[in-house]
């Protein structure tokens, strides 16, 4: 009852018609998402992307990753250059809020799939950094010593706290600037940045690691970015988030966080989103019976820009098989919690 599958979504069928699904991810955030060698990707968000794609009927070899920067996440999704975005995107940040209200291509967000806090990665000796306890101490640094990514929630935070700073396209670019001594962003991102990079206080000096200082009272909740208007796409994405979550955190993040943040670091408590199977099913029925397309054949559905045609024509046989398995598993899980779906 109330079953839905990828072939019930005009948007997902359109993506299948292209042969591959394109996912926007960061390329330089170890533990979360990084391109280790050309075409080879790994990280927590990469594994989650594969799980979401599988639920949409795409095997791993049909998933293509596109590197995105913070300032371009919304634009690339709205232009159709990527089909969904998994890039440490804070669901209630200013960029996401603005994207939801976009006049022509509004976005939606499914999550949270991870939670963290804002922090500062500070260059200096352990003794020197010990005096840096929060944003008031960071404010004492000169403008060109403090850096974050343009378009990020950390940029919003620094503006709110009236901290003069510089911005670059990525946090790695901040680190690479020899003038920068403080990088501001999410704690879990800084753990990966610190793992991948060293700094030297002077020529010939020993390479060292930075020190991460947590900024109190901040919470960053990550969501999957989608184009709005397809409850089936949202539902299937939602159902994939808890899958393998514990093992993905252990494999990709835990050791890194304990080494570069706190030896007592524990995985965050994340209240996964409730997935509305009923809304997805209603959307399926609305498309089936009422979608305006070929007047003589109501067994068709289309999204803007699609030609009229059989409802399932864009889904290859292997995708039907893969999506049926994922849908059956999701339906079985959902049936145990129908009141919350």
What does this structure look like?
There is one protein chain. The chain has two domains: 169 residues, D-Maltodextrin-Binding Protein, domain 2 (3-Layer(aba) Sandwich), CATH 3.40.190; 97 residues, Periplasmic binding protein-like II (D-Maltodextrin-Binding Protein, domain 2, 3-Layer(aba) Sandwich). The protein is α/β, with parallel strands linked by helices and 341 residues long. The chain is 37% helix and 18% strand. It starts with 9 loop residues before the first helix and ends in a 6-residue tail after the last helix. The longest helix has 19 residues.
What's this entry about, in short?
Belongs to the bacterial solute-binding protein 3 family. By secondary structure, the protein is an alpha/beta fold.
What key phrases describe this protein's structure?
disordered C terminus, alpha/beta, 341 residues, 3-stranded parallel beta sheet, D-Maltodextrin-Binding Protein, domain 2, single chain, 13 helices
């Amino acid at each position: 009852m109330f079953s839905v599958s990828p072939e019930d979504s005009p948007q997902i069928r359109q993506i299948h018609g292209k042969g591959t699904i394109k996912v926007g991810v960061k390329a330089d955030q170890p533990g979360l998402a990084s391109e280790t060698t050309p075409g080879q990707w790994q990280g927590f968000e990469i594994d989650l992307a594969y799980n979401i794609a599988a639920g949409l009927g795409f095997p791993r070899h049909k998933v293509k990753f596109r590197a995105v920067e913070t300032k371009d996440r919304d634009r690339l999704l709205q232009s159709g250059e990527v089909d969904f975005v998994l890039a440490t995107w804070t669901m209630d940040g200013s960029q996401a809020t603005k994207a939801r209200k976009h006049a022509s291509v509004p976005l939606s967000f499914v999550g949270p799939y991870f939670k963290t806090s804002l922090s500062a990665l500070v260059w200096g000796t352990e003794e020197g950094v010990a005096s840096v306890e929060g944003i008031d101490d960071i404010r004492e640094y000169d403008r060109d010593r403090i850096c974050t990514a343009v378009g990020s929630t950390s940029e919003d935070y620094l503006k709110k706290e009236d901290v003069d700073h510089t911005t670059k396209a990525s946090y790695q670019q901040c680190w690479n600037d020899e003038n920068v001594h403080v990088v501001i962003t999410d704690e879990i991102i800084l753990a990966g940045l610190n793992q991948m990079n060293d700094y030297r206080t002077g020529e010939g000096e020993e390479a060292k690691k930075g020190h991460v200082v947590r900024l109190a009272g901040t919470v960053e909740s990550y969501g999957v970015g989608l184009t709005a208007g397809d409850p089936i796409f949202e539902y299937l994405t939602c159902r994939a988030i808890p899958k393998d979550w514990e093992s993905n955190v252990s494999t990709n993040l835990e050791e890194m966080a304990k080494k570069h943040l706190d030896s007592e670091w524990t995985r965050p408590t994340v209240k996964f989103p409730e997935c509305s199977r009923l809304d997805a099913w209603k959307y399926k029925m609305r498309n089936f019976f009422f979608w305006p397309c070929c007047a003589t054949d109501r067994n068709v559905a289309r999204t803007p820009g699609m030609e009229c045609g059989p409802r399932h024509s864009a889904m290859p046989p292997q995708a039907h098989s893969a999506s049926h398995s994922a849908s059956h598993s999701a339906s079985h899980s959902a049936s145990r919690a129908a009141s919350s779906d």
